[in-house]
Each structure stands twice: as C-alpha cells, then as structure tokens.
C-alpha cells in the first residue's frame, strides 16, 4: 500500500505539475490514479479528443446511490508575464499562506478531496464519496462535460455535488451562465480615399460593439427580476475583451476578429441571447453585403456554460450548510462546473476554501486557515457518509 499523505503533502504534489490549460495534464492524472490505486480506489480516465488531456473520476465506498461528488479542475492559468517571489510550481508555506499556482484555484480543494477519498475508503463509509477531476475549466468549462455524462451513466447516482471553487467555505447556491463567441468579420479592401466602395471590417466591428454597449446600458436600466436581483451586477452582461484587424491606416480593413461573451443571470435563456446576437449580426451583415456581397460575419461558438439555479431545499445546499454552519445567501457572477452537473440532474452547490480574489494572481495563495477549514469540512463529510 502507498503511504498515506496528509492534505498538504498532496497539495505539494499537485502544484508541482505545471498543468497550464494550453498543456497536457496527463502527468498529474497519472499521479492521482496511482495514489488512489495504492489505497484500493480505482479510477477511470475520460480522455480528450486529441488524447493530450484527460478527466478522471473515482469512487470510494460501496456502489450504492445517495453519495456525494467532490468536483474540481486540474488546469491552471499561465504564469507568463507575472512576477513571482518563488517558483510558482513549488508549494511554499509562509506567514500562514500556501503559495503556488493553483493553490487557491483550485488544487487546494482537489488535494482535500483526494485525501477525503482515502479517508472514506479507510473509514468504511456506507454511502460513496466520488471524485470528479476535470480539465480545461479555465478555457470555458469544457472538459467536464463528457466526464459528467459518463459518471451519470456508470456510477451510482450521487445525492449531492460540491464544486470546490474558492468561496471562503461559504455555500454558493447560484451563479450566472455564459456563452462565448469568436467573431470573425470579413470586409473588402479599398484605398481609404474611396472608402464607401469598400467594407471596413473594423468599422463593422464598431457597429457590433455599439450594440453591445447599448444592450448593457438597457439591461442596467431595467428593474431586475427577483432572482437576478441577488447577483452583482443584477443583470446579464455582454463583454468583448480582445479585438484585432486591419493592415494599414489608408486601407479599409479586410479582416477583424474579436471575442464576445455573455454572462447570463438564471431565469434568462442563454439560447435567447444567442438568437439576439445572431439577429444583430444578420442586420449588420446585410448592410455589408449591399456594398460587397463577399463581405460577412461568422460567429464561432467557443463554449456554452449553463447557470447554477438556486435549489430551494436542495440536497447539496442542505448538506453543505449543515457541515459548514453557513446560512447566508451567496451567489456569484462567474461560472463553474456546478451548472453542468445541475443540467444532468444533480443537486449542486459551490463551496471551497480560499478567496476568488487570489485566483489567477502572481504569488497566488491559499490561507492555511482556509485549507484547514476545508479539511474539517471533509472529515465531517466522511463521518456523515459513514453514519
């Protein structure tokens, strides 16, 4: 049998793998597989299409329904351009903080989950504890979907899912959904002195951005529905973070590329927002084609992520509140994999150690007190499953 590691030692191992989303996570997955197998826990890989990454799920305890899923992601954001005090891929504890890329988002929770699975197997729980470890969460929550589908089909149905994104161990019962597009605009080049005879892809992008700004302003003025009012901001938002195009100051731009993303409050349909964007693109495109038929706009959907809708009296919320003692009303405007679990019929909440303020930052850290509180949560959960 493999030596049982404490949660901090497991975290040190996980941080040592540079699982930036653009790179493979297979070395980390292999380590987790071997460690769990060394304690009698089998796991299953769900590989990516290109085979360079994999999700992993595992179960400790009996194959009966009514257990709990602990969900986390293996990927981290890059450290490029950031100034770190220490090696970002080496766990360093200093002044009550655990430093390293991913300590907060979210290898801290994953380490606690792995330790909890081993504890559950050793304890002999009566209901199973399941681990769901995904990839490409940072690229749009995409790597979890095949894994969740397989877990729903092959494992005993869990009663609750705890997604351990950093929430200061508060029970987050709702979050916004989202959809993101790569927008590619094809214009027609002419000399800028005869600009009306061409189509500037940059100018047409401006029309789309004007629509974005007008919609954001309209949404901000509209009184929110009761569910939306719980969020900050209490409305759907539309955002473009990157744009590039054109070749010279005196040529109408032949191409322009931008992104456009929607963070949609629960209660509004993501598909409805896709339809609105598509209609506006069609309106702008018609004007472009009236000048040059070959001009146009292409929308490429990068990802879609469902919201987490608060479940009044839901099993996951009830469990997490009982274990943490938190009875506050908490929702967040970012997305998590909890929405995907909920879309497969699972009861889900977000609850994990650390603050989202530390996520993605240079010298990312997780407070030792938060990590310890997470371990208290896990030990109580194991006892709950053993009762």
Which helices and strands occur, and which strands form pairs?
Layout: H1 7-15, H2 26-37, E1 43-47, E2 54-60, E3 68-73, E4 92-94, E5 97-99, H3 103-123, E6 129-134, H4 144-154, E7 160-163, E8 172-175, E9 177-186, H5 201-221, E10 237-239, E11 243-245, E12 255-264, H6 270-291, E13 296-305, H7 315-324, E14 330-332, H8 338-343, E15 348-350, E16 365-367, H9 368-386
Parallel strand pairs: 3-6, 3-7, 7-15, 8-14
Antiparallel strand pairs: 1-2, 2-6, 4-5, 5-16, 9-12, 9-13, 10-12, 11-12
Helix pairs in contact: 1-3, 3-9, 5-6
Number of helices in the DSSP assignment: 9
Structural class: alpha/beta
Strand order of the largest sheet: 1-2-6-3-7-15
How helical, in percent, are the residues? 25-40%
Q: Largest sheet, if any?
A: 6 strands, mixed
The stretches of 5 or more residues where confidence is low (pLDDT under 50) are none
User: Could you state the order of secondary-structure elements as H and E?
Assistant: HHEEEEEHEHEEEHEEEHEHEHEEH
Strand percentage: 15-25%
Number of strands: 16
Radius of gyration: 23 Å
Shape: elongated
End-to-end separation: 26 Å
Mean pLDDT: 97
């Amino acid at each position: 049998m493999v030596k049982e590691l404490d949660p901090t030692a497991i975290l040190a191992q996980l941080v040592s793998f540079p699982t930036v989303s653009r790179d493979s996570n297979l070395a980390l997955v292999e380590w987790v597989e071997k460690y769990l197998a060394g304690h009698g826990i089998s796991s299953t890989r769900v590989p990516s299409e290109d085979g360079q990454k994999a999700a992993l799920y595992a179960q400790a305890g009996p194959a009966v329904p009514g257990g709990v899923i602990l969900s986390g992601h293996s990927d981290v954001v890059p450290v490029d351009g950031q100034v770190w005090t220490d090696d970002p891929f080496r766990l360093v504890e200093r002044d009550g903080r655990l430093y390293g890329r991913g300590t907060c988002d979210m290898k801290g929770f994953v380490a606690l989950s792995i330790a909890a699975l081993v504890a559950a197997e050793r304890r002999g729980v009566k209901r199973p504890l399941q681990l769901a470890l995904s990839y490409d969460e940072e690229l749009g929550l995409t790597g979890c979907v095949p894994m969740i589908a397989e877990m729903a089909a092959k494992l005993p149905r869990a009663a609750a899912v705890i997604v351990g994104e950093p929430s200061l161990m508060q029970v987050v019962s709702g979050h916004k959904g989202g959809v993101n597009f790569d927008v590619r605009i094809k214009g027609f080049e002419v000399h800028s002195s005869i600009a009306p005879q061409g189509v500037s892809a940059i100018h047409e992008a401006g029309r789309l951005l004007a629509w974005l700004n007008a919609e954001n302003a309209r949404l901000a003025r509209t009184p929110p529905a009761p569910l939306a009012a719980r969020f900050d901001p209490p409305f759907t938002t539309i955002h473009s973070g990157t744009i590039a195009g054109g070749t010279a100051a005196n040529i109408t731009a032949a191409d322009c590329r931008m992104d456009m993303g929607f963070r949609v409050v629960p209660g509004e349909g993501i598909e409805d927002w896709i339809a609105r964007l598509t209609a506006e693109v069609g309106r702008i495109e018609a004007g472009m084609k009236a000048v040059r038929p070959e001009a146009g706009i292409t929308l490429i959907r990068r990802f879609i992520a469902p919201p987490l809708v608060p479940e009044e009296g839901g099993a996951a919320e009830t469990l997490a509140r009982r274990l943490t003692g938190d009875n506050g009303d908490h929702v967040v405007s970012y997305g998590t994999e909890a929405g995907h679990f909920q879309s497969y019929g699972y009861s889900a909440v977000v609850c994990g150690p650390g603050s989202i303020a530390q996520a993605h930052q240079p010298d990312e850290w997780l407070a030792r007190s938060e990590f310890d509180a997470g371990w208290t949560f896990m030990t109580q959960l194991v006892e709950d499953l053993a009762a």
